[in-house]
Design a protein that fits this description.
- By secondary structure, the chain is mostly helical.
- Helix content is about 55%, strand content about 0%.
- It is built from 25 helices and no strands.
- The longest helix is centred in the N-terminal third of the chain and has 24 residues, at about 30-50.
Length: about 375
């Protein structure tokens, strides 16, 4: 019998056929037209990209996700190639606390965006850690932050003021409560940027549980709101004037004259720093006796700070006699009719300043009455 010849071509021959095929396509590229040429280039490019992004460092496992050296072991491309979505989701908290570079964080963000095309659920937002730093305000505005704990966790890693404001705005738009946790996370200066209607939602009990807030940058209207809440929050301490006053201190800028008069009788010895934070309009309504009772042993601080705006405003709205009745050497005040503005220095000698002040104020008052009578 005639032997059947093996028709399988030799390997070298097959290789030559493949090479020839690709050379034919490449040579024919101009004839394919622009679309055909682009399609061919895209195919070849995808093949090159696929080869470039193959995981060569070994896939990342659960046991590796808390390794602080991970950013050095897995450069950006390898992190992308070697981190499976399942490992990312199961260990997001651990990965979110690793100091990856911005490009590496963008890899994690891109993977999350692909998994949650409708936006991150709140439980995932809580786990972001440093990954929050690569999200922009517009993206954050699409989140659903309703829990104060989530707010606190996200604010802790906020990279800038714009991001912080976007986070807080998102929380408030979702009716997140301004409870103690939220107040501690937001802090006084940012609280002052919120709308007045937001501040009115704070429950006294939550303000009481929160850390003291610095509201010095608030408008007067906002200070008034926060002081009103603080009064209710610490009302149980009203029987102990000093303890009550110490709790009200951070919010004292919103106190009305009636509040200050009530505090004055409690022997609280208000320091000048606190006094300087009071609403000047309300301070102007205080009598010299109120001032004396309010500052107590710190009364001389008014003389030491006589050029401070709040001191000058009080002096300029009270009579010379009342200013001098404080007995601390303050000058100025409204003089009796027809006398003009007077500035009187304490007399020398052994008598106390208070004695001379009282004598002079009496003389000035009598002189003013006499002038009015003769006129």
């Amino acid at each position: 019998m005639m032997a059947v010849s093996n028709c399988t071509p030799p390997m070298k021959f097959v290789t030559l056929i493949v090479i020839g095929y690709f050379l034919t396509i490449l040579n024919a590229e101009p004839a394919l037209g622009e679309k055909g040429s682009q399609g061919l280039r895209q195919i070849l490019l995808r093949r090159r990209v696929k080869r470039a992004t193959d995981c060569t460092e070994g896939f990342i496992t659960k046991d590796m996700t808390d390794n602080t050296l991970l950013p050095a072991i897995y450069p950006t491309e390898q992190l992308d190639a070697c981190l499976n979505n399942s490992v990312l989701l199961a260990n997001l908290t651990e990965l979110g606390h690793i100091a990856f570079s911005r490009d590496q964080l963008l890899v994690l963000k891109r993977k999350l965006d692909g998994l949650y095309t409708s936006g991150l659920p709140e439980e995932r937002i809580q786990q972001l850690g440093f990954i929050i730093t690569v999200y922009g305000p517009e993206e954050i505005s699409m989140w659903n932050i309703t829990n104060a704990d989530t707010l606190a966790l996200v604010l802790r890693n906020s990279p800038n003021l714009n991001t912080t404001k976007a986070i807080i705005a998102n929380y408030l738009q979702r009716s997140g409560p301004l409870n103690a946790t939220a107040l501690d996370a937001i802090g006084g200066p940012l609280l002052c940027t919120l709308r007045e209607e937001n501040l009115r939602t704070i429950f006294p009990g939550e303000l009481k549980k929160a850390k003291p807030l610095n509201i010095s940058t608030c408008t007067q209207a906002k200070k008034d709101i926060l002081f009103g809440i603080a009064k209710v929050a610490f009302q149980d301490l009203a029987g102990d004037p000093k303890a009550y006053f110490n709790k009200l201190k951070p919010y004292i800028g919103g106190a009305q004259v009636s509040d200050l008069q009530s505090l004055a009788v409690g022997n609280i010895n208000m320091d000048f720093e606190t006094f300087s934070r009071l609403n000047p309009v309300e301070v102007e309504k205080l009598t010299a006796e109120n001032i004396r009772d309010l500052l107590g042993i710190n009364l001389n601080s008014l003389k030491e700070n006589e050029n401070h705006e709040i001191v000058r405003r009080w002096v300029n709205t009270h009579s010379v006699a009342e200013v001098m009745s404080l007995g601390i050497g303050l000058r100025g005040g409204i003089s009796p009719a027809g006398l003009g503005n007077l500035s009187i220095s304490p007399l020398p000698g052994s008598a106390s300043v208070s004695s001379y002040s009282l004598l002079l104020s009496t003389c000035i008052t009598v002189f003013g009455i006499a002038l009015q009578y003769h006129s």
